User: Fold these one by one.
Assistant:
Number 1:
Amino acid sequence: FICVFYVMSFLLVGVV
């Protein structure tokens, strides 16, 4: 699902 991908991207940005 696109939502999952969006959430993963957001989490990755948060880590950085």
Number 2:
Amino acid sequence: MIALWQRRWLWLSLLIAIVMRIFVWVVLPRAGWISDEGEYLSAATWLSYGRGFAWYLDYFWTRAPLYPLFVAAHLRIGGTEYWVFFSQMLLSLVHVVLVRAIAQRLYPIQSAVADVAGLLTALALPLAVFAMTVLSETLFLTFFLIILWLALGFQIAIPSLWRAALIGIFLALATLTRGIMLAFVPFVAVWICWGGSPLPPEYFRKRVHAVIAMLICYFVVLMPWSWYASRTFAGSVLVDTSAAYNTLLTAQTTVYGAQSGAALEGFVGALMSERVTPPATTCAPHPGYQATAAARQQAMMAEAMCLITTHPVAFVARVPAQFVDFWQIHYASAERFTKGFTLGTVPPSYITAVLLFDDLWYILVLIPAIMGLWVMRRDGATRSQHELFLVWFCLPVIIGVVFFSITRFRIILLPLMSITAAATFVFLLQKRWHELLRPLPGLVMASALVIWSLAATPLASTTTAFPPSFFGPSPSVMFCLDLAQKAVQLRTNSVDFLRMLYVNPWTMPIPTPLPAPLATLAPALHATWRGDATQALALLPADDGIETQVMRADLARSKGDFVQAKALFGTQAVDQRNPLEWAWLWLHPAPTTTIDVGGDLDIGYIRGCYLGEGDAQLDANFRWCSSGMQLRFPQAANGLGQRLQLRIDARSWPLDVAPRGPIEVWLDNQLLGTVIANTPTLRTAQFDLPVLPAGNDILITLRGPAFVPDANDYRNQTGSQSGQMRRLMVRLDWAKVE
């Protein structure tokens, strides 16, 4: 009992962290894959198929192997990414323990620092949110903190070869998770040799031996992957090739500004495909199509270095802006899962959590965290420990500023900020204010206030001279919070309106206010569901929005004008959005017993399918659909026995991927039958339907195994589908009820 009581702050921290992670698991408003999730999942899925890292052969870059292997193991065992989330949740709890352990190394006497650091880490919402993503940060941060904990216990005066070897092993594991760790290796080696207070010459030889032991273990773990990657990607690849792409992105953004997107797409596109013409103007000569990832890496790095050396002033001039951007809060960044906050799609509880445990946590911790870099050396850490901690704290900032400042770079700092902020809080609780009046702490305090002003910009609400971040106008936290809170009613009204349309479309009035685009489409939708196509057409707004165009096409289809309907449904703008989900929810399509899947006129009758594609050999159109896809036949039931027919093409199912089971065909909650997922022929499957009341809708659901296509398919996703991994279950031509 005494031991439990002595560890009460540890248990409290873990309890808070567990509650935070359960909360995130339940309410996180995920709507598709963000950032690099689709890439990691695709590559990991191919690994689970036993294809090695072949997915990256056709992608812009290659990745460090450990995280794709981590995800692949979970997919192979559990079948879904939720097992990845669960394991990462456990790892994020380990972060709390590691932060306390690091704080105890730095403050072996003052246990209060470890207690406060553990609590701050447990309360940091981003650490819980990142654990619910298929991104490498959680695994990398585990190794990052373990290395720091091991190194802080390293006795510079009496170096241990075993501890040095262990540091080398974990440095290699971290490098194999994210290549950014390569930048830390020379600093660790130099720190072991020369860190801390000067020692007699006889100790230097022992230090050198420790560095050699560390580097041997580091390269023993690292080089097998380097050998494999160099063979697989046909050239010299130490860890990955993403650094070349990121360097080129940074260089082109610096030189071309707003035109950098087109410049990057043109340069890299010509490397990836023979059908793309190389850009006419480049800094270094464009080599044309390159068949291997290693060759593409060399071409991108050559162009990047040419741009940087040709425009060094522009590259240096961007650093201050990047430094400001690094510390600022970006309310709508993808990793925060706040997309759609102005439309009410983000739950109010999550909005509140983001305010309290992300933004407010950051604003309140930032000043004491930076002050803690001085307090730590004053009170706790030895000189060598302080030097290493500064490297761990400052190097991610430098890398982020030199390349590009994104939320994912700052996530690494949060556990370290918890430690330094805890040191400052304990220092202030000891009422030692007078020590801050000296020159060095005064300089650190001034620096902390400057950085805090970049993040909080308290004067932005009164003048436009400051970039908004926390207190100021859009896109500040407080401004966005106000929009998000007002949008809650928009979401409630849209749900009520949808329910009204399905239950009794003659109900009046329409709930207001409604989110865009419903705010302008609601009267026309109301008329459509009442069956008054003429009035609905008159009520449609004059804009050319996608939803307006889809409604206009649906009304033309309802009136029998299939030529106009097909022309409107088949525009490039509609194709890029592929608005099947919106159409499924809001359209009231005309009765039918036949759905020509992929023929443009299927919008409103299907959901869970991807963009249509033509087959010149068969002179037919198809759509790939995912597990859970649905077909709707409005008013198709006739009160007699009927049969469902599905024209299925499974010829594209990979031969080396064994389906986990058949495709199941369901009518509501009744299983009609199954279909083999991977037969090599085009076929028509038939299923007997039970007798349904005349005039009823027939709702069919297909569930089954799916496979992930190659990187070319992933790269070809554009518009709103960009970055979205496709899971292909079945390719449908048409569906009929007879």
